[in-house]
Amino acid sequence: MRKILIVDDEHAIRRTLCLLLESEGYKVLTAATADAARAHLAEEGIDLVILDLRLGDDNGIDLLMRIRETNTDAECIIMTAFGSIENAVESMRLGAYDYLTKPINPEELILRVKRVFEKKQLAEEVTRLRDELSNSSRHDGMVAASPAMRGILNVIQRIGSQDIPVLVRGETGTGKELIARAIHFASHRSQRLFLPINCCALPEELLDSELFGHVKGAFTGATASTRGLFQQAHGGTLFLDEIGDISPRLQTKLLRVLQEKTIRQVGGERQIEVDVRIIAATNRDLETAVRSGAFRSDLFFRLNVLPLHVPPIRERIEDLTPLIDLFVERIRRRTGRKRLAVTPEARARLHAYHWPGNARQLENIIERGFALSSTDTIDVPQLMFDASPLFEVKGAAADTHESDRVLPTLEEQTLKHIRDALAAHDGNQVAAARALGISRTTLRRRLGLGP
Ligand SMILES: Nc1ncnc2c1ncn2[C@@H]1O[C@H](COP(=O)(O)OP(=O)(O)OP(=O)(O)O)[C@@H](O)[C@H]1O
Ligand SMILES: [Mg+2]
After folding, report:
1. Final residue before a domain boundary, out of 293, 311, 329
2. Judgement on whether residues 219 and 176 belong to the same structural domain of the protein
3. 29: left (phi over 0), alpha (psi -120 to 50) or beta
4. 137 located within any domain
5. Is any atom of ligand 1 closer than 6 Å to the C-beta of 178?
6. 81 lies in the same domain as 115
């Protein structure tokens, strides 16, 4: 329940306001002197103080200043005598939220009080959502069991609030965006926006206006002016994914932003100041692109102040088990099931795989495994590694005619795995079964060979 403190030296006013506000459902305390008010403020969680500026021997302005310094959560509404508007102006300047002139109109008072609490509720809601957002986006959910990933977390913590540009490199699906987010949320920019953009997803002109915005009439169809991502991310972080793919013209524009910290909207004249931290990522060999002239070397050096290399999963195999557990747990929570498990055999298969699509591929395979499983368990038959229209390994060498094919049935998939394993082990069933992480009996049963 919201608590209101009424400070007035006139007994009749204290009593009237108290009854009025109590009938509106508030908890009301009263004080006749500044001392009494201070005692309440020190002990009770007061949300709002309604304060008469003329307090007999005490000075209401002093009390107001004191409240603003020590009880920053409490809002103040000032009551002044009719005609003393200077006092009201002065108290608003000192941080009062609102003022009322005496004699007090009850309806007016209730309206103003409601308004204060609406504003407070909104502010509290924003704080709560921010906390929630930053908790869910913090790297709490980031697996870092391997020394390589722990090293990266360490660097993220150490760079903390320094705004140095970071270039995150690594194969597709290694977690480059997750790391960029972690850098943002560990920095002083964490309360502002983190905006990711995939630079290779848009044609040049669109990317240009997406990044820098455009003025009305800049091109056909530009019926209104828009703010680009640089302006929207002001105070925050812009994550430029697949930076290796941007055109020479945009490379030049980007370099200028990094040097001058100002942008110009497409078709615009005005230089607009922006304060944005840039994190870029690529899975390409940028050094070669620089050598061949496809990527500007000056831009490369500007972006690559701190290089972070994220190794592929197969080079940090310690992360695999915790990643499996994390993804399984996420699905379990999302689907509200009590229990979800991956059999030891299926885990062994996951460990034997080379993960060209890294964590993202693992996430997809587990997701699909549960979709295919009629129980709460993923076993070897539910693991499907092949490229198919349903499961595309971005950036990995996907076989085109393979992806044109209709998705094979689960049974076909399983048989194919087993036959491949057998072929790889010269038909030796024991060796093939061991490689698949299943028993020889299971292998024979799957092949229809009997026990
Ligand atoms: N260390 C990790 N801990 C937890 N989840 C991870 C980790 N690494 C990657 N993931 C998850 O894997 C998925 C892919 O990660 P992300 O999008 O960051 O990769 P990426 O390197 O940006 O991929 P791409 O190159 O394809 O853009 C995301 O769902 C991410 O949350
Ligand atoms: Mg990415």
Report:
1. 311
2. yes
3. beta
4. no
5. yes
6. yes
Q: Are residues 158 and 83 in the same domain?
A: no
Does the CB atom of residue 346 touch ligand 1 within 6 A?
no
Q: DSSP assignment of 316-372, as one string?
A: -GGGHHHHHHHHHHHHHHHHT-S--EE-HHHHHHHHHS--TTHHHHHHHHHHHHHHH
Tell me which residue range forms the domain holding 82. 3-132
CA-closest residue to ligand 1 atom 15 = 175
Name the average pLDDT for the chain: 86
Question: Which atom of ligand 1 has the smallest separation from the CA of 394?
Answer: 26
Query: Is 138 among the domain residues?
Result: no
How many domains does the chain fold into? Answer: 3
Bond prior to 103 in cis (omega within 30° of 0): yes
Which residue's CA is minimally distant from atom 10 of ligand 1? Answer: 175
Asked if 27 and 14 sit in the same domain, the reply is: yes
Residue whose CA is closest, atom 29 of ligand 1? Answer: 360
Please report which confidence band the pLDDT of residue 408 belongs to, taking 50, 70 and 90 as the band edges: low
For ligand 2, the distance from its centroid to the CA atom of residue 285, given in whole angstroms, is 16
Same domain flag for 26 and 171: no
Is the distance from the beta carbon of residue 282 to the nearest atom of ligand 1 less than 6 Å?
A: no
Ligand 1 atom, smallest distance to 176 CA = 21
The DSSP 8-state label assigned to residue 409 in this structure reads: P
Average pLDDT over residues 47-69: 87
Q: Is residue 451 part of a domain?
A: no
pLDDT in tens, 422-448: 877 777 888 888 777 677 777 777 776
Please state whether the predicted TM-score (pTM) of the whole model is above 0.70: no
Q: Count Cβ atoms below 10 Å from residue 120 Cβ, excluding itself.
A: 17
The number of the ligand 1 atom at minimal distance from the alpha carbon of 168 is 21
Span 183-188, average pLDDT: 92
Q: Going by C-beta distance under 8 Å and a sequence separation of 6 or more, which residues neighbour residue 304?
A: 165, 167, 286
What average pLDDT does the segment 240-249 reach? 94
From 279, 296, 311, give the residue that closes a domain: 311
Question: The sheet that has 237-241: what strands, in order across it?
Answer: 194-198, 237-241, 277-282, 166-169, 306-309
- Per-residue pLDDT at 241: 95
pLDDT band at 132 (very low <50, low <70, confident <90, very high): low
Kindly state the percentage of the chain with pLDDT values over 70: 90
Tokens of 53: 């500026």
Half-sphere exposure for 175 (CA within 13 Å, toward CB) = 26
